[in-house]
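Comment on the following before class.
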Amino acid sequence: MNQYFLLNKSFINGEWVEGETGRIFNDLNPFDDTVVAKISIASKAQLDSAFEAASESQKEWAKNAELRKSIIENVIVYFKKHQQEIVDVLVSETGSSVLKGNVEVNFVIADLEESLKIVDKVGTVKTVESAIPDKLNHVYRLPLGVIASISPFNFPLYLSMRTIAPALALGNTVVHKADLQTGISGGSIIAKALEEAGVPVGVFSSILTDIREIGDTMITNPHSKLISFTGSTGVGKHIGKVAGELLKRTALELGGNNPFVVLKDADVDQAVNAAIMGKYLHQGQICMSINRIIVHEDLYEAFASKFVERAKQITYGNPKDPSTVIGPLINHAQMQKVLGFIEEAKADGVEMLLEGKREGNVLTPFIFGNVDNASSLARREFFSPVVPLIKASTDEEAIQIANDTEYGLSSAVFTSDLALGEEVAVQIEAGMTHVNDQTVNCLPNIPFGGMKGSGIGRFGNPWIVDEFTQAKWVSVQVKPMKYPF
């Protein structure tokens, strides 16, 4: 057994502890439903103790920039040294392909390396000009305090570390809750890496628990100053509502209905290449995955034909096979949900360009054609290898269709005219648009985040510094002030 599956406990206040609820969660391999770990579910009292420890340790942690650098450097070494074992966990616990697992670990390392660049951003002082005579204005950049981190099942390691690494680098402490379905890769591996790196007691806690036990405690605990959440728009709205009533900050990366737009002058073959990658990486279970393909009518038939043929050739099955591209969906509930989408589309008479199949927990590509953007099929986030093709009569209509959604996370535009591509990219209402590339892109030094129903806030250096710190104005009156009364 991979050593990491033995880390089935919470890491609180520097110790690995059994959950106090007495309940056990069976962590399943989504491909064959075998139990990879029996996770001991932590109690609300244990979560409260994690927040207490985080609060007590935060000020000392913030004072020591050299220690923060050293810890992050050690964690980088740890991930590089154990990459293969960690990829094996991602394959077994999350259904990741070997390719996706390696991509995820490499993303983590890149974010850790970028976080080293922001360690010295806290405690810094900026002098601001004063309109008041003999007054010095200094602006300090200070940590927020304790950050509550909540991560999803799809990219559990990366989407956890994307919050944890910069938060710690900036002098905050972190209480982290991973999705139990991927509690080892989304929580325990990170806790182990930080423990081995020498993180001080209380600075980081990974709690393996569920909403049934803790409710809104990640948001409402008085020590949490910011809630960082990646997941569905519905849950994000709830977090925003509860946090707003408490005047707490949030960083929310939520759902997407990401358009892939093929303009009239696009290179069809390259557009197909990109669409295959952007749709089928990790079975389409990525917030940035292509959700709608919008093609100019002049290219529609050629694109549809080539895209279908390529989709037929995609390998699927056991993700432990390095040649596998499409592995299992995360659980049976998700499978039933997606099959329901498909049956509804069939009942509505939507054209089927490629009818896939279910083999165990694996779903092969389903492609629908000539889909109406107003249909329920086009309005949904699939999180699966299902995709609708939508025909646009003009480039302008393609842009209009792309924007006709409540979401605005990622997007892509294909064209032979790069200037036009960038002009269209700016018009698309999404936090990120990629010209002549697919929608699944991520770098540690870009403003990652969405518009509209896809979230609030931006990850990436330097934007994350503003998210995870607070500015404080200190003025010094050098000479006595003459007051009017």
